[in-house]
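S.,

Sequence below, as promised.
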Amino acid sequence: MNRIKTVSLIGLGALGLLFSESFASAASPGGFRIIADASRQARYRKEGLYNNDKALNNFKMLRPDEACEPADLLIFAVKYGQLSQAIADAALHVGDQTIILSLLNGISSEEDIRAVYGDKVLGCTVQGMDATKEGNRLYWKNMGAFTVGELYSDQITPRLLLVADYLTRAKLPHTIVTDMRDRMWGKFMLNVGINQVISVFEGNYGTIQREGPERKRMIAAMREVITLAKAEGIKLDDNDLLYWLDVIRPLAAEGMPSMRQDLLQGRKTEVDLFAGTVVKLGQKHGIATPVNQALLGEILALEKKF
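The prediction came back faster than expected:
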């Protein structure tokens, strides 16, 4: 493969919708496919899909059981609770040369995909976006940027360069790095703080952008991740914390992270991916994680209300 031409995307949540047009623009004509079962396709056709009020209605959609050429690039953009089914649904899109990206939160999805499809998965984070999804409509001011790298190598490999070329053609800001696992832990640290604290305080990005008890609690939750990272052999320190605080500074104050949006719409959250993971790692290493332990309980209590 000398260029990424065929691209398959599974998941049209906030990130899937946010980047779908850009992904399609860099694929060959007819080379961008959405993987969706018949019921989802029917819903998309009936209700439509909108990105900042622009209708998206020209995407090619394939059922999981429809025969097709394997994708050069397969992108997962589902919620973690849907990942197992998505991995199975994407089987016909995976070939010998397929490169796989996961846009999911947390530090677990890449290993779940690798367990099925092997060493086709690159590490990837997306940060700096402020998208809010209301039903089938997505609204945003800041699109954010991609960070991509090999998971278990510090080399800039040919497949990384292929992905960089594709993102460039898609006009998506990106950085190729040699310390991807450290970067993923940094994004994990951010989500542990920002998603959970905004959710329990029933706020928005503005809630934690200003000084106050909410911001202090967010930073305390993030610091627990720094302690665990050291135990896991990951390079993460206060400089990384300051970097991520800078990332969230320009976000639209009225915007909300995905967990807060899930709770508002009566959906189960990804708290197990955040505080749940922190608590389990704390138990593994004998490290106390009281801030995340409390957040876990509070968010599970909020879920019980619906």
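The radius of gyration is 19 Å.

Coffee later?
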